[in-house]
Amino acid sequence: MTGFLLRRLGQSAVVVLGVTIITFVLTRLLPGGVARAILGTRASPVSIAEFNRDNGLDLPTWQQYLFYLNQLLHGNLGFSYRLNEGVGTLLGDHLPKTIILLGASTLLALAIAVPLGIMQAVRRNKVEDYFFTTLSFALYSMPTFWLGLILIIFFSVDLNVLSPQGPQGDISTYLDPEQLASLVLPVVTLALVTIALFSRYMRSSMLDNLVQDYVRTARAKGVSNTGVLYRHVLRNALIPIVTLLGLSLPGIFSGALIVEAIFNYPGMGLLFWDSARTRDFPVLLGVTLVVAVATVVGNLLADIGYAVVDPRVRITE
Amino acid sequence: MSEPTVSELDSLPVPEVRALAEGGEAKVAGSAWKLAAYVFVENRLAVAGLGVVVFMFLFCFVGPLLYHTDQINTDITQFTLPPSPAHPLGTDNVGYDVLGRLMVGGQTSLEIGVIAALLATTFGVLWGAIAGFVGGWLDQVMMRIVDSMLAIPTLFLLLVLAAMFVPSLPMLIFIVALVAWLVPARLIRGETLSLRTREYVDAVRVMGGGDVRIVLRHIIPNTIGTIMVNATFQVADAILTIAALSFLGLGVPPPATNWGGMLSNGVSYTFAGYWWLIYPAGLAIVITVVAFNLIGDAMRDAFEVRLQRR
To answer: Which chain B residues contact residue A270 at CB under 8 A?
Structure first.
């Protein structure tokens, strides 16, 4: 297990380093250079020279990269001149809100998708299975923002029961009934897309396991049908879901960006979108880096989790 | 949920046996392509998907020849009209006919989808095949690049790129392809690793064939199933991606549009009840993407490819 852990940690470190190289290269590609892109087209040559000196941009390229890396290691993700605040501080405000959105919708998605997948596997090729397969196919092929729009039209415009805007207050106020109600639509929208994906996996994972030898053995030993299903098959079928959670993290992040944009939910995605429209590159690159590192860590945790519950992985790797 | 009854559990699947008993493959004789085509045609949903795709292409590219509308000059005296005989799907906020706009927007969506998928697949396949075939440190470097780019969620990378480069149509295609080539690269690299040790590769070498010949003429053609399945999913993904980008306001500049851009336009009228600005474009996206996904699913069965996706 130690060898497996070390190897996986090493791989993740390489990928994180790779991500920093990509964000660094992206800054080099900025039209008109970094200083122009950040200070604006009307910045004076003096202020540009000063900016370059402060940020190590007058050094040779490889030294610039080391300078950049050194800044990152000291927790300096960049400074937003537009918002006049450090990217780290901005993330401190916005990231927790995104984590709440992601956490709540993922839990909701799992709570619905797992039983749904089991039901579809058991009732395979029956009316219910076809119905939910079609539904998840449609959900999966649906642009997230359109889904959000339809939910808004239905629940906010026609029925007028839910707020079309996410909670705007501080996180500490999220438990107020009003804020909680405004959290419903964003969470549900994000969850619906994930449910479609998770239930498909759960269904096929159950089906894969139902034909395994151990199922036959359990049956032969006289284990009841429910016993086979819940004590043997389900436990094994849940294992791939751990990996799936890790793998779908980038997709869920992208989904959160769109959901935050539709519902004006002031999380990291909305911050990122605003920065893209105003071409606030320090924020864009800082957030990109954070999201990528979060993805790498998420995958790492999923892999370790997988290795803990399924010892075969450690051997075959 | 309720616990399943005994009779339901008795009917639990034993797929291998059933496949043998039916012996479907014995019916067909001929090449692998014929066999694949046979399996594909057997799948009703896939044929329906193909029908929808053909219809969409006709609708978007031939439609404007039969249904004439002005999609360049705005007409603000005719804005947000509800559907009527003159405008079957109404008009939008600057007076464009929505049905005609659906055709023009669809052209952009389909063009971007197909071209970006082709570009991404071609590049990804070459990248993966070279990495897998050469192996060693080159493979390590090439695949770590792929891993690092895959770690950045697609939409984030796309928004950075779209903010950096002014989005024109070719630029958008390039940007979408730039984030889409990673998955085929990974898939093909995996296949190449197993293909390069096959006897026929040794045979080519004995006959004096070089590495380039082996990769281009032998390894890549043997991964054609994976390539085609993945390319189909790529088109679906690219259409969704470009819709999302346009919705976020970083898509094709007006007067050109695409289905996502039309939706982005309609959002402001959510509360006004102008459903014709929201449902047609959204449905067009969903139907087209579902169709491409159905085709991809069926091709996966036909070529017996196992992908990591879905």
So the answer is: none
A55 pLDDT more than 90? no
Query: pLDDT tens digit string along B137-180?
Result: 898 889 888 988 888 888 888 888 888 877 788 888 888 898 88
CA gap B111, B118 in Å, rounded: 11
Contact check, Cβ <8 Å, B153/A251: yes
- Assign B28 a pLDDT band (cuts: 50, 70, 90): very low
Q: Which of residues 60-99 of B touch A (CB under 8 A)?
A: none
**Structure confidence at residue B3 (pLDDT):** 43
Residue B97, helix vs strand vs coil: strand
- CA–CA separation, A113 and A104 (whole Å): 14
**Domain A93-278 carries which CATH code?**
1.10.3720.10
Ordered by start, the domain boundaries in chain B are 85-296
Residue the block writes with tokens 């392809």:
B177
Q: Nearest-CA distance from B65 to chain A in Å?
A: 29
Q: How far apart are CA B79 and CA B85, in angstroms?
A: 15
DSSP B270: G
Chain A contact for B23, CB < 8 A? no
- B3 to chain A, any CB pair closer than 8 A? The answer is yes
What backbone phi and psi angles, to 5 degrees, belong to A81?
-70, -25
Cβ contact (<8 Å) for B151 and A15? yes
Q: What is the pLDDT of residue B124?
A: 92
Task: Give B155→chain A minimum CA distance, Å.
Answer: 5
A216-249 per-position pLDDT tens digit: 888 888 888 888 888 888 888 888 788 888 888 8
CATH class of the domain comprising B85-296? mainly alpha
Give the span between the Cα atoms of B280 and B265, in whole angstroms: 13
The whole-number pLDDT of residue B32 equals 66
Collect all residues of chain A within an 8 Å Cβ-Cβ radius of residue B270: 149, 152-153, 157, 164
Q: Name chain A contacts of B152, Cβ cutoff 8 Å.
A: 19, 22, 250, 288, 291-292, 295
Residue with tokens 């790797």: A317
pTM score, whole prediction:
0.81
Q: What is the pLDDT of residue B308?
A: 39
B289 touches chain A (CB under 8 A): yes
In this structure, are residues A156 and A162 in contact, taking their beta carbons and an 8 Å threshold?
Answer: yes
- Distance (Å, whole) CA B265 – CA B208: 60
* 3-state DSSP of A102-149: HHHHHHHHHHHHHHHHHHHHHCCCCHHHHHHHHHHHHHHCCCHHHHHH
- Please check whether residue A157 touches B, CB under 8 A: yes
Q: Name chain B contacts of A299, Cβ cutoff 8 Å.
A: 151
Band of residue B307 on the pLDDT scale cut at 50, 70, 90: very low
Domain extent listing, chain A: 2-76, 93-278
Helix, strand or coil for residue B71?
Answer: coil
Chain A contacts in chain B segment 256-285 (CB below 8 A): 260, 263, 267, 270-271, 273, 275, 278, 282, 285
Reported in sequence order, the residue ranges of chain A that DSSP labels E, i.e. its strands, are: 79-80, 85-86
Complex-level ipTM? 0.85
